Amino acid sequence: MQKKKKCYIYTRVSTAIQVDGFSLDAQRNKLTKYAEYQDMEVVKEFSDAGHSGKNINGRPEFARMLEEIKNGEDGVSFVLVFKLSRFGRNAADVLNSLQLMQDYGVNLICVEDSIDSSKEAGKLMISVLSAVAEIERENILVQTMEGRRQKAREGRWNGGFAPYGYKLVDGKLLIEEDEAEVIRLIFDKYIHTNLGANGVADFLNKHGYKKKKRQNNTIDAFASSFVKGVLDNPIYMGKMPYGRRSNEKIQGTRNEYHVVKQDVYDLYNGIHEAIITENDFRLAAQKRKETGVKREKTYSLEHEHILSGILRCPVCHGAMYSNVNRKKKPDGSYYKDFFYYACKHRLKVDGHNCTYHHQWGQEKVNAAVEEVIYKLVKSPKFQAALKEKVGAKTDTEELDKERDLCKVRLKQTIGSKNKLADQLDRLDVNDRFYDRKYEDMQERMNKLYEEIGAIEDEIETITMRIDNINKKRLSQNSIYKILKSFDKIYSEFTDAEKKRFIGSFVERVEIYEEEQENGRFLKSIKFRFPVYYNGVETQEVIFSDNGWDYLLTKK
User: What pLDDT does 517 receive?
Assistant: First the structure.
């Protein structure tokens, strides 16, 4: 009696639930019956559910099957698959995997395609069909993108979530007035003041504006990334862009892609109503071009403005920022930089006009604040109490959790996009509902791309918030150690380290409009946590006219 030939069964679907005869059960049933008819013994079954066939990466059962073949313990002669597309859709991967199998004496049988690689014409047929399948897949993707381009040419919305400021009604963009008010304000503040993207976001948050939570967004605060996205989006001037994001192949990989923002893209007249004028958009774009790239310092490279943003204007109480007076020699060559603190609100930032024009030398103000800290930390009671009271920890745990959830959503959405792409490349052009199915899938694909972009922006916003918190945060122990040895180590700090430390310890410094007769100009210092002086706990120290020994405390 002739010994039965042994075989493996391999099944695969790209989605958890597959129809049209491609379900895992349908494949398994067909292959089992074929094995019985051919008098083969099925040794093992391998099945990848919810995995694309565009490459072998990410198909754990397929990889395990190849390892079993290399081990040779089961002595199989064939691998049975329902169709060649179940084995793989990338020509190179199909042929490489087949060659590996044949190196160990194992051949491939595609039951539905009537292909047997052990026969003379089998491998040739596999080469041809796998190449055709890959070309067909690329053609479908090209057709999909061309369909999107045509929609943009006609000025129609290409699918996905409506941009902030608009709502989607029957596939058309209509202005959402409460959101559009914020869009107009962003352009107005950015164009007509010297505020940057960070400043505009800060203005919106401080003036009580709340961002609508859309696309599963949980953050109602405005971030600079959101402002930049608005300023860069031509949709708001009534145009329909195409190609702002491109799905590009990752170098060094065969079938891995990522979404890349493009600097150059097509622009068409939209059928939707504009929120801002084209001229305003161009003005904002010009400012973005001029100020969007951080200028590198060429002078005083180690200098940092230690109290910038902490020192307060005595007139408007707004933050004072740095100013520099660059001195040059008679021949025009560089001599030295002189740094000052000045109130920038006199430049009508935020529509605010301050009359205070005095500039304070940075060295003088920095030294006065440092002297106060020296006197505070010398107190033994201050040092003892500080160890217990200092530094309420700024916790980013909730933001970390929120970012992790976003990453899960992003992974799921990308997975849905990949599964949909696989469904697209399985469409039968002879199906009488082909056009209807194609349009439906294309619309879903567009929405998924938009959702991916929205989630990526959300992750970027959360990451920026976490980074900003971490930059400002010093641990309790590190602040304590610095303060304990302040007189010894502070002078050894770089300006950047001094700025970081002072920013974590001091919240606000108030000054008089002019230097007093006794030379005093500091009015008060507010700390970020309780400090101790003469046995009294306080967070704000107010200075009297009688010198350092008469510090007043305010609980």
Answer: 83
